[in-house]
Amino acid sequence: MFGVNAEQNKNGPEDESKMEPSGKKKGKTVAEVYDEIKKMIYYNMLAPGQKLIYNDIAKRLKTSTTPVVQALKALERSNFVRHEPNKGYFVEEITETEARELFQAREALEIYSISSIIEDLDLKKLDSIREAFRDYKGAMEPGKRRMLMLNDARFHLKIVECSGNKVIYGLLEHIFEQITLKYRPEYMWEERIKEVAKEHAALLKSLGEGDIKKTTDLLRAHIGKGREHIVRSLQTDGALNL
What we know:
This protein has helices spanning 2-8, 30-42, 54-61, 65-77, 96-120, 123-138, 145-161, 166-180, 190-209, 212-240, and strands at 51-52, 81-84, 88-91.
């Protein structure tokens, strides 16, 4: 979803709470409802930890509850929602253990790609990374925390896209979705947001210089800091919501 939504609206809706799922026809397929619910999570219209009410979602999507139930089962298999016996479905939330494991996998894939990225990097590709960096900075304002997270993922995915390895890109896209859609935007610390912008700028400069070692070191440190920020915020801010 990162690529599609990035092209349609790089900075997202001005007021994410007012964005409505697309389509007005009745009798939606399970696949359509799956995509619509995922989009609602994508734009924080359904927040991590929130209970999902069949009738409410069906009414919002102008369809029956049958495809909604089937779509939620599919989303559970994709690890975006969870089912609790006698309670129902909830938007899944990322755990400390899962965050560490996802960042470990992310680091392995991104670091592995650096040499091929720099070897194949040209001005056109570098400009596309610069544009993704500008999109991140453009979302650094109150009320756009979810979009900031999405634009951060797009920045990194744009870099990896330059390697030409579609398998690694697809794996990383899945990893970023598991992190981004299951982490509460309000947990983001203002100090870290500013640090990320500086680290992105340093990465962009190093990529332009074609320095593989420097870029690798910067990226490894950047991913490590991101992991620790998420884990610490889950330990502090997350504990307050228990």
